[in-house]
Specification:
heterodimer, A: 409 residues, alpha+beta, five-stranded mixed sheet, three-stranded antiparallel sheet, 16 helices, B: 65 residues, Alpha-Beta Plaits, two-stranded antiparallel ribbon, two-stranded antiparallel sheet, 2 helices
């Protein structure tokens, strides 16, 4: 692993670098230096995965966007050459994110309605109440406390529970199992067990909604099962996907975003002292770009030969596209390593790109806008209660962040 | 300039509605986008160009006619 940090000479004898690569010590917000080095070289290279396979690594913004949009590129985990993140026994697959069209589109369109921009906007007052109540609780409890447990995880968990119709009382159960499911070094049997428990839980919950339907997304899926449009197994998998994606990602953006702002006090002051919702929205886009918490790389396989960046990716070869490095491409974002909440960062690829781009992004954006515009104003003296270097960063997860964030005020 | 949306390609990401809310909206039943104003005034064209650029499915075009 160590030799990948210094980069290797671009000759045929050079060893194939291992992927994933390590971040540099003391630079918790920056992508691994070895990824940066590959981007600087500008060409595609092959990397070696845990199973010995050697997919292509694509680091440039434009190349990633072109490939993620290309219908000859498959997201189906069973396509030949698909670069597996971890051992796959075919039992842990999470619904349509690992499928191609037309089945992907058919299933995705069943759950996109509640995430439409204007429907999400209607949820904003409720999210503001959730955020305010949790801050009231924090202030009443007094610091120091763990911001992840007290705030970052509860906000999106409460929101997605309401939207899906999942009892929040079960949050410990689904948060713990989700954590195991997305840990990239968890043993396969542990992930399979966690996945099985989540599937069982969702299936049971949807079974109850057959007799007592509510005004929620899961009840909508139950109606589709009853209409014969969806199997019960597919419905449970979609439920797991939405529950998992709905809380893990946003929680990490809240905690890591807060840390990034505390480490960039000029940017934090700019955000805190403004009541312009456009600046808040801009700060959200910039933090999404800068932190890009989904750091495992988007994984795909070529269904046909594809010419790109002076290379030919052959049919049956895999490719990995780490969006974190694309979002630091100077050709797309000038001075990319600087956090600047006033820049126009809307073209970032933190939600991915192509037909699989995150369907919950309007909800994530709205939640983050409410959080970032409220937390630092209501607790203006918020500060870290630990050294940055001592924080437990999620180097081992598919989603980057911190396991805990001790803060006080 | 005319806005064209290739509906079967749309993945309901909502990016176009965020970039140009006067020009795009989403269907109630599945969040798929539709065009509110096919010939938007000049002062909205930059927003539409942004929508074209960030649409993850390349489903939007701005054509010269």
């Amino acid at each position: 692993m160590a030799d990948t940090l210094t980069g290797s000479a671009p000759d045929a004898a050079a060893p194939v670098p291992e992927f994933p690569m390590a971040r540099a010590a003391g630079c918790p917000f920056d992508p691994p230096p070895a990824l940066q080095a590959r981007q600087d070289e500008g060409r595609l290279v092959k990397v070696r995965l845990w199973d010995g396979s050697t997919p292509w690594l694509v680091t440039r913004y434009e190349d990633q966007r072109a490939l993620l949009l290309d219908p000859r590129v498959s997201a189906d985990i069973t396509s030949p050459g698909y670069p597996l993140q971890a051992p796959n026994n075919g039992k842990n697959n999470i619904s349509f994110i690992l499928m191609d069209d037309p089945e992907h589109a058919r299933l995705r369109r069943m759950v996109t309605a509640p995430f439409a921009v204007k429907k999400v906007e209607a949820l904003r007052p409720g999210v503001q109440r959730i955020v305010d109540d949790l801050i009231d609780d924090m202030l009443a409890a007094g610091g120091p406390l763990d911001l992840v447990e007290a705030f970052a995880l509860p906000v999106p968990s409460l929101v997605i529970c309401q939207l899906l119709g999942v009892p929040y009382a079960d949050h410990y159960f689904f948060q713990e199992n989700s954590k195991t499911l997305i840990k990239r070094d968890a043993a396969m049997e542990d992930r399979t067990a966690a996945h099985g428990r989540l599937i069982g839980y969702l299936d049971d919950l949807m079974g109850r909604k057959m007799t007592e339907p509510g005004d929620d997304l899961l009840s909508g899926l139950v109606a589709r099962v009853e209409a014969g449009e969806l199997t019960r197994q597919d419905a449970a998998q979609m439920g797991v996907l939405l529950l998992l994606a709905g809380h893990e990602t946003t929680a990490n953006m809240i905690a890591l975003g807060t840390l990034a702002l505390l480490e960039n006090p000029d940017q934090l002051a700019l955000l805190r002292d403004s009541d312009d919702p456009r600046l808040v929205a801009s700060a959200v886009e910039e933090l999404l770009r800068y932190l890009n918490i989904v750091h495992g790389g988007r994984r795909r396989a070529a269904l046909e030969d594809i010419e790109i960046a002076g290379e030919v990716i052959r049919a049956g070869e895999g490719m990995i596209m780490p969006n974190d490095i694309a979002n630091r491409d100077p050709d797309a974002f000038p001075d990319p390593d600087r956090l600047d909440i006033t820049r126009d960062a809307r073209r970032h690829v933190a939600f991915g790109f192509g037909v699989h781009q995150c369907l919950g992004q309007p909800l994530a954006r709205m939640e983050l806008q409410v959080v970032y515009s409220t937390l630092y104003r209501r607790i203006p003296t918020l500060r870290l209660a630990a050294e940055v270097d001592s924080l437990p960063f999620k180097h081992d997860g598919s989603v980057y962040g911190v396991y805990s964030l001790p803060v006080t005020w | 300039m005319r806005v064209e949306l290739d509906e079967p390609k749309c993945v309901a990401s909502g990016q176009c509605v965020m970039a140009a809310p006067e020009v795009f909206d989403q269907r109630d039943e599945d969040g798929i986008a539709f065009v509110l104003d096919e010939k938007p005034p000049a002062d909205l064209l930059d927003d539409v160009r942004e929508a074209v650029a960030i649409c993850p499915a390349a489903a939007i075009r701005l054509v010269d006619r």
